[in-house]
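Here is one chain, start to finish.
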Amino acid sequence: MTPQRPALFPVLLAGALVLLTVHTLGRFIYTPLLPWLVEDGLLTLRQGADIASWNYLGYLLGALLAIRWHRIAQIRRCLPWGLVLHALTTLLQTQASDPDLLAALRLLNGISNGLVFVQAPALILEWLVRHNRASASGLVYLGVGAGLLLSSAMVGLSADWLQGAARWWPAALLSLPLAWWGWHRLARLDTAEQAAPPGEGSPSGQLLDRRTTPLFLAYTGAGMGYILPMTFLPTLARLQVAPDSFLINGSWLVVALATLIAPWLWSRLGGQLGDKHALQINYLIQLAGVLAALLLPGATGILLCALLVGSTFLGTVLLTQRLGRSLQPHQGPRISAAMIALYSVAQLAAPWLTGQWLGMGGSLHSAFWLGAGALAWGFGWMFAVPGPGADEARR
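Its structure:
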Protein backbone atom coordinates (compact mmCIF):
# COMPACT_ATOMS: atom_id res chain seq x y z
CA MET A 1 0.00 0.00 0.00
CA THR A 2 1.44 3.40 -1.03
CA PRO A 3 2.01 5.68 1.99
CA GLN A 4 -0.06 8.84 2.02
CA ARG A 5 1.81 11.97 1.03
CA PRO A 6 1.95 14.57 3.82
CA ALA A 7 -0.22 17.67 3.58
CA LEU A 8 1.74 20.62 2.24
CA PHE A 9 -0.60 23.48 3.12
CA PRO A 10 -0.07 23.61 6.92
CA VAL A 11 3.71 23.50 6.51
CA LEU A 12 3.82 26.13 3.78
CA LEU A 13 1.39 28.33 5.72
CA ALA A 14 3.56 28.07 8.83
CA GLY A 15 6.64 29.04 6.83
CA ALA A 16 4.82 31.92 5.15
CA LEU A 17 3.59 33.29 8.50
CA VAL A 18 7.04 33.04 10.04
CA LEU A 19 8.54 35.00 7.13
CA LEU A 20 5.67 37.49 7.29
CA THR A 21 6.45 38.00 10.97
CA VAL A 22 10.19 38.61 10.81
CA HIS A 23 10.57 40.09 7.33
CA THR A 24 7.57 42.39 7.07
CA LEU A 25 6.45 43.05 10.68
CA GLY A 26 10.13 43.20 11.55
CA ARG A 27 11.88 44.78 8.57
CA PHE A 28 9.62 46.22 5.87
CA ILE A 29 7.05 47.82 8.20
CA TYR A 30 9.74 50.38 9.00
CA THR A 31 9.35 51.87 5.49
CA PRO A 32 5.75 53.12 5.95
CA LEU A 33 6.37 53.85 9.67
CA LEU A 34 9.36 56.12 9.15
CA PRO A 35 7.50 59.22 7.83
CA TRP A 36 5.19 59.07 10.85
CA LEU A 37 8.06 58.65 13.32
CA VAL A 38 9.72 61.70 11.77
CA GLU A 39 6.48 63.70 11.85
CA ASP A 40 6.01 62.78 15.52
CA GLY A 41 9.45 64.18 16.30
CA LEU A 42 10.80 60.83 17.48
CA LEU A 43 13.48 60.79 14.75
CA THR A 44 15.04 63.05 12.17
CA LEU A 45 15.20 61.80 8.61
CA ARG A 46 18.98 61.31 8.94
CA GLN A 47 18.52 59.31 12.14
CA GLY A 48 15.85 57.23 10.43
CA ALA A 49 18.21 56.39 7.56
CA ASP A 50 21.00 55.45 9.99
CA ILE A 51 18.65 53.21 11.95
CA ALA A 52 17.63 51.45 8.74
CA SER A 53 21.31 50.75 8.05
CA TRP A 54 21.71 49.17 11.51
CA ASN A 55 18.81 46.88 10.71
CA TYR A 56 20.40 45.86 7.39
CA LEU A 57 23.67 45.15 9.22
CA GLY A 58 21.78 42.98 11.70
CA TYR A 59 20.23 41.05 8.82
CA LEU A 60 23.71 40.32 7.48
CA LEU A 61 24.92 39.20 10.92
CA GLY A 62 21.90 36.91 11.27
CA ALA A 63 22.64 35.30 7.92
CA LEU A 64 26.27 34.79 8.96
CA LEU A 65 25.10 33.10 12.16
CA ALA A 66 22.94 30.84 10.02
CA ILE A 67 26.08 29.73 8.16
CA ARG A 68 27.58 28.72 11.51
CA TRP A 69 24.40 27.00 12.72
CA HIS A 70 23.37 25.26 9.50
CA ARG A 71 22.71 21.67 10.57
CA ILE A 72 19.12 20.53 11.01
CA ALA A 73 19.59 19.92 14.74
CA GLN A 74 21.07 23.41 15.12
CA ILE A 75 18.24 24.97 13.13
CA ARG A 76 15.71 23.30 15.41
CA ARG A 77 17.44 24.85 18.43
CA CYS A 78 18.10 28.31 16.96
CA LEU A 79 14.92 29.02 15.00
CA PRO A 80 12.59 29.38 18.02
CA TRP A 81 15.11 31.65 19.75
CA GLY A 82 15.28 33.79 16.63
CA LEU A 83 11.50 34.19 16.78
CA VAL A 84 11.67 35.01 20.50
CA LEU A 85 14.30 37.67 19.79
CA HIS A 86 12.07 39.18 17.11
CA ALA A 87 9.04 39.28 19.40
CA LEU A 88 11.03 40.72 22.32
CA THR A 89 12.74 43.46 20.33
CA THR A 90 9.49 44.44 18.61
CA LEU A 91 7.79 44.74 21.99
CA LEU A 92 10.65 46.85 23.35
CA GLN A 93 10.42 49.13 20.31
CA THR A 94 7.02 50.25 21.63
CA GLN A 95 8.91 51.89 24.52
CA ALA A 96 11.95 53.17 22.57
CA SER A 97 11.71 56.95 22.50
CA ASP A 98 15.48 57.36 22.29
CA PRO A 99 17.01 57.04 18.79
CA ASP A 100 20.11 55.23 20.10
CA LEU A 101 17.98 52.65 21.89
CA LEU A 102 15.83 52.19 18.80
CA ALA A 103 18.98 51.70 16.69
CA ALA A 104 20.20 48.96 19.05
CA LEU A 105 16.81 47.24 18.96
CA ARG A 106 16.66 47.45 15.16
CA LEU A 107 20.12 45.85 15.00
CA LEU A 108 18.94 42.95 17.17
CA ASN A 109 15.68 42.70 15.24
CA GLY A 110 17.69 42.49 12.02
CA ILE A 111 19.76 39.63 13.46
CA SER A 112 16.57 37.69 14.24
CA ASN A 113 15.27 38.46 10.74
CA GLY A 114 18.41 37.24 8.99
CA LEU A 115 18.59 34.07 11.07
CA VAL A 116 14.93 33.12 10.65
CA PHE A 117 14.73 34.15 6.99
CA VAL A 118 17.48 31.64 6.23
CA GLN A 119 16.63 28.84 8.63
CA ALA A 120 12.85 28.56 8.22
CA PRO A 121 12.84 28.10 4.40
CA ALA A 122 15.91 25.84 4.66
CA LEU A 123 14.17 23.59 7.19
CA ILE A 124 11.03 23.43 5.05
CA LEU A 125 13.05 22.74 1.88
CA GLU A 126 14.81 19.79 3.55
CA TRP A 127 11.41 18.41 4.58
CA LEU A 128 10.02 18.89 1.07
CA VAL A 129 13.03 17.17 -0.49
CA ARG A 130 12.54 14.27 1.94
CA HIS A 131 8.99 13.89 0.60
CA ASN A 132 9.85 14.58 -3.08
CA ARG A 133 7.96 17.90 -3.10
CA ALA A 134 10.87 20.37 -3.51
CA SER A 135 9.16 22.25 -6.36
CA ALA A 136 6.66 23.69 -3.84
CA SER A 137 9.36 25.29 -1.66
CA GLY A 138 9.01 28.77 -3.13
CA LEU A 139 5.45 29.12 -1.89
CA VAL A 140 6.68 29.98 1.62
CA TYR A 141 7.69 33.38 0.23
CA LEU A 142 4.03 34.24 -0.32
CA GLY A 143 4.20 35.48 3.27
CA VAL A 144 6.50 38.32 2.24
CA GLY A 145 4.16 39.65 -0.44
CA ALA A 146 1.12 39.37 1.80
CA GLY A 147 3.06 40.98 4.62
CA LEU A 148 3.95 44.04 2.54
CA LEU A 149 0.27 44.79 2.08
CA LEU A 150 -0.60 43.90 5.68
CA SER A 151 2.11 46.06 7.22
CA SER A 152 1.18 49.06 5.08
CA ALA A 153 -2.48 48.66 6.04
CA MET A 154 -1.64 48.34 9.75
CA VAL A 155 0.37 51.56 9.70
CA GLY A 156 -2.32 53.43 7.77
CA LEU A 157 -5.22 52.27 9.94
CA SER A 158 -3.46 53.08 13.22
CA ALA A 159 -1.90 56.36 12.07
CA ASP A 160 -4.51 58.64 13.68
CA TRP A 161 -4.68 56.99 17.10
CA LEU A 162 -1.08 56.01 17.85
CA GLN A 163 1.92 58.27 18.16
CA GLY A 164 5.69 57.97 18.53
CA ALA A 165 7.07 54.65 19.76
CA ALA A 166 3.52 53.40 20.36
CA ARG A 167 3.16 53.00 16.58
CA TRP A 168 5.03 49.69 16.92
CA TRP A 169 2.22 48.12 18.98
CA PRO A 170 0.22 46.58 16.08
CA ALA A 171 3.32 44.79 14.77
CA ALA A 172 4.29 43.65 18.26
CA LEU A 173 0.86 42.26 19.13
CA LEU A 174 0.43 40.44 15.83
CA SER A 175 3.95 38.99 15.92
CA LEU A 176 3.31 36.99 19.09
CA PRO A 177 0.56 34.62 17.88
CA LEU A 178 2.01 34.30 14.36
CA ALA A 179 5.49 33.40 15.62
CA TRP A 180 4.12 30.96 18.18
CA TRP A 181 1.83 29.12 15.75
CA GLY A 182 4.42 29.07 12.98
CA TRP A 183 7.10 27.47 15.13
CA HIS A 184 4.59 25.11 16.80
CA ARG A 185 3.87 23.68 13.35
CA LEU A 186 7.44 23.67 12.02
CA ALA A 187 8.76 21.95 15.15
CA ARG A 188 6.80 18.83 14.16
CA LEU A 189 8.48 18.36 10.77
CA ASP A 190 10.13 14.96 10.29
CA THR A 191 13.47 16.20 8.95
CA ALA A 192 16.80 14.47 9.20
CA GLU A 193 20.42 15.40 8.53
CA GLN A 194 21.25 15.20 4.82
CA ALA A 195 23.47 12.25 4.04
CA ALA A 196 26.04 12.23 1.28
CA PRO A 197 24.65 11.12 -2.09
CA PRO A 198 25.30 7.41 -2.81
CA GLY A 199 28.67 6.66 -4.38
CA GLU A 200 30.15 10.11 -3.74
CA GLY A 201 32.14 9.28 -0.61
CA SER A 202 32.78 12.17 1.74
CA PRO A 203 31.33 15.35 0.23
CA SER A 204 33.33 18.54 0.11
CA GLY A 205 32.65 21.13 2.77
CA GLN A 206 33.53 23.97 0.42
CA LEU A 207 30.80 26.46 -0.39
CA LEU A 208 32.58 27.77 -3.49
CA ASP A 209 33.50 25.29 -6.21
CA ARG A 210 33.27 25.25 -10.00
CA ARG A 211 29.53 24.55 -9.83
CA THR A 212 28.44 27.06 -7.20
CA THR A 213 30.82 30.00 -7.78
CA PRO A 214 28.96 31.27 -10.89
CA LEU A 215 25.67 31.10 -8.96
CA PHE A 216 27.16 33.12 -6.08
CA LEU A 217 28.49 35.73 -8.52
CA ALA A 218 25.11 35.97 -10.26
CA TYR A 219 23.31 36.35 -6.92
CA THR A 220 25.60 39.23 -5.98
CA GLY A 221 24.31 41.09 -9.03
CA ALA A 222 20.73 40.28 -8.05
CA GLY A 223 21.15 41.76 -4.57
CA MET A 224 22.68 44.96 -5.87
CA GLY A 225 20.23 45.24 -8.77
CA TYR A 226 16.94 44.89 -6.96
CA ILE A 227 17.67 47.00 -3.87
CA LEU A 228 17.96 50.27 -5.81
CA PRO A 229 14.35 50.34 -7.07
CA MET A 230 13.12 48.80 -3.81
CA THR A 231 14.79 51.62 -1.87
CA PHE A 232 14.51 54.62 -4.17
CA LEU A 233 11.57 54.03 -6.53
CA PRO A 234 9.07 56.13 -4.50
CA THR A 235 11.64 58.94 -4.33
CA LEU A 236 12.30 58.70 -8.06
CA ALA A 237 8.55 58.83 -8.67
CA ARG A 238 8.34 62.13 -6.79
CA LEU A 239 11.02 63.55 -9.09
CA GLN A 240 9.54 62.34 -12.37
CA VAL A 241 5.74 62.20 -12.27
CA ALA A 242 3.06 64.83 -11.84
CA PRO A 243 2.33 65.87 -8.23
CA ASP A 244 -1.23 64.54 -8.46
CA SER A 245 -0.17 61.14 -9.90
CA PHE A 246 -1.27 57.97 -8.15
CA LEU A 247 2.35 56.80 -8.34
CA ILE A 248 3.55 59.46 -5.89
CA ASN A 249 2.17 57.40 -3.01
CA GLY A 250 1.17 54.31 -4.97
CA SER A 251 4.40 53.01 -6.48
CA TRP A 252 5.14 51.00 -3.32
CA LEU A 253 1.60 49.60 -3.39
CA VAL A 254 2.14 48.45 -6.99
CA VAL A 255 5.34 46.68 -5.92
CA ALA A 256 3.54 45.00 -3.03
CA LEU A 257 0.67 43.81 -5.22
CA ALA A 258 3.11 42.46 -7.80
CA THR A 259 4.92 40.41 -5.14
CA LEU A 260 1.74 38.50 -4.25
CA ILE A 261 1.81 36.26 -7.31
CA ALA A 262 5.60 36.07 -7.62
CA PRO A 263 6.37 33.05 -5.38
CA TRP A 264 3.66 30.89 -6.97
CA LEU A 265 4.59 31.98 -10.49
CA TRP A 266 8.34 31.39 -10.22
CA SER A 267 7.99 28.21 -8.20
CA ARG A 268 5.75 26.83 -10.95
CA LEU A 269 8.02 28.02 -13.77
CA GLY A 270 11.02 26.51 -12.03
CA GLY A 271 9.22 23.19 -11.82
CA GLN A 272 8.29 23.27 -15.51
CA LEU A 273 11.42 24.76 -17.10
CA GLY A 274 14.08 23.88 -14.55
CA ASP A 275 15.32 26.34 -11.98
CA LYS A 276 18.29 27.52 -14.06
CA HIS A 277 16.22 28.44 -17.13
CA ALA A 278 13.50 30.05 -15.00
CA LEU A 279 16.17 32.07 -13.21
CA GLN A 280 17.63 33.31 -16.49
CA ILE A 281 14.17 34.54 -17.53
CA ASN A 282 13.76 36.12 -14.10
CA TYR A 283 16.99 38.13 -14.46
CA LEU A 284 15.95 39.40 -17.90
CA ILE A 285 12.53 40.57 -16.69
CA GLN A 286 14.02 42.24 -13.64
CA LEU A 287 16.63 43.95 -15.83
CA ALA A 288 13.84 45.15 -18.12
CA GLY A 289 12.12 46.71 -15.11
CA VAL A 290 15.17 48.75 -14.12
CA LEU A 291 15.81 49.74 -17.74
CA ALA A 292 12.20 50.91 -18.01
CA ALA A 293 12.82 53.45 -15.23
CA LEU A 294 15.99 54.57 -17.04
CA LEU A 295 14.79 54.70 -20.64
CA LEU A 296 11.12 55.61 -20.15
CA PRO A 297 11.19 58.54 -17.71
CA GLY A 298 7.88 59.44 -16.17
CA ALA A 299 4.84 57.45 -15.11
CA THR A 300 5.25 54.67 -17.69
CA GLY A 301 8.81 53.87 -16.61
CA ILE A 302 7.97 54.02 -12.90
CA LEU A 303 4.93 51.78 -13.30
CA LEU A 304 6.78 49.19 -15.39
CA CYS A 305 9.68 49.17 -12.95
CA ALA A 306 7.34 48.61 -10.00
CA LEU A 307 5.51 45.78 -11.77
CA LEU A 308 8.52 43.98 -13.23
CA VAL A 309 10.85 44.25 -10.24
CA GLY A 310 8.05 43.55 -7.75
CA SER A 311 7.03 40.40 -9.61
CA THR A 312 10.56 39.00 -9.88
CA PHE A 313 12.81 39.70 -6.88
CA LEU A 314 11.25 37.03 -4.65
CA GLY A 315 11.49 34.61 -7.55
CA THR A 316 15.23 35.29 -7.71
CA VAL A 317 15.55 34.33 -4.05
CA LEU A 318 13.53 31.10 -4.15
CA LEU A 319 14.96 29.84 -7.45
CA THR A 320 18.53 30.54 -6.35
CA GLN A 321 17.99 28.75 -3.04
CA ARG A 322 16.62 25.67 -4.78
CA LEU A 323 19.29 25.67 -7.46
CA GLY A 324 22.04 26.09 -4.88
CA ARG A 325 20.77 23.12 -2.91
CA SER A 326 20.63 20.98 -6.03
CA LEU A 327 24.30 21.73 -6.68
CA GLN A 328 25.36 20.89 -3.11
CA PRO A 329 22.57 18.73 -1.63
CA HIS A 330 24.75 17.61 1.28
CA GLN A 331 24.86 21.14 2.77
CA GLY A 332 21.64 22.79 1.62
CA PRO A 333 20.97 25.00 4.70
CA ARG A 334 24.60 26.15 4.80
CA ILE A 335 24.72 27.22 1.16
CA SER A 336 21.35 28.93 1.60
CA ALA A 337 22.74 30.94 4.52
CA ALA A 338 25.88 31.86 2.59
CA MET A 339 23.84 33.13 -0.35
CA ILE A 340 21.60 35.25 1.85
CA ALA A 341 24.69 36.71 3.54
CA LEU A 342 26.17 37.60 0.15
CA TYR A 343 22.83 39.08 -0.93
CA SER A 344 22.88 41.22 2.24
CA VAL A 345 26.35 42.58 1.50
CA ALA A 346 25.20 43.58 -1.99
CA GLN A 347 22.13 45.27 -0.50
CA LEU A 348 24.35 47.31 1.81
CA ALA A 349 26.79 48.21 -0.97
CA ALA A 350 24.31 49.50 -3.55
CA PRO A 351 22.75 52.33 -1.47
CA TRP A 352 26.24 53.34 -0.27
CA LEU A 353 27.53 53.54 -3.85
CA THR A 354 24.42 55.50 -4.79
CA GLY A 355 25.16 57.96 -2.00
CA GLN A 356 28.71 58.37 -3.26
CA TRP A 357 27.40 59.02 -6.78
CA LEU A 358 24.92 61.60 -5.56
CA GLY A 359 27.69 63.25 -3.53
CA MET A 360 29.70 63.66 -6.73
CA GLY A 361 26.81 65.47 -8.37
CA GLY A 362 25.14 62.53 -10.08
CA SER A 363 21.38 62.16 -10.30
CA LEU A 364 19.22 59.50 -8.67
CA HIS A 365 17.87 58.59 -12.10
CA SER A 366 21.34 57.89 -13.49
CA ALA A 367 22.24 55.87 -10.38
CA PHE A 368 19.80 53.22 -11.58
CA TRP A 369 22.40 52.29 -14.21
CA LEU A 370 24.26 50.63 -11.34
CA GLY A 371 21.27 48.38 -10.78
CA ALA A 372 20.92 47.62 -14.48
CA GLY A 373 24.62 46.77 -14.75
CA ALA A 374 24.43 44.52 -11.70
CA LEU A 375 21.48 42.57 -13.09
CA ALA A 376 23.20 42.23 -16.47
CA TRP A 377 26.24 40.88 -14.59
CA GLY A 378 24.01 38.35 -12.83
CA PHE A 379 22.35 37.26 -16.05
CA GLY A 380 25.71 36.74 -17.71
CA TRP A 381 27.03 34.55 -14.90
CA MET A 382 23.93 32.34 -15.07
CA PHE A 383 25.26 30.88 -18.33
CA ALA A 384 28.20 29.42 -16.39
CA VAL A 385 25.96 27.67 -13.85
CA PRO A 386 25.70 23.89 -14.50
CA GLY A 387 22.87 22.89 -16.84
CA PRO A 388 19.36 21.74 -15.98
CA GLY A 389 20.45 18.16 -15.38
CA ALA A 390 21.83 19.18 -11.99
CA ASP A 391 18.64 20.69 -10.69
CA GLU A 392 16.38 18.18 -12.41
CA ALA A 393 18.13 15.37 -10.59
CA ARG A 394 16.68 16.40 -7.27
CA ARG A 395 13.07 16.19 -8.46
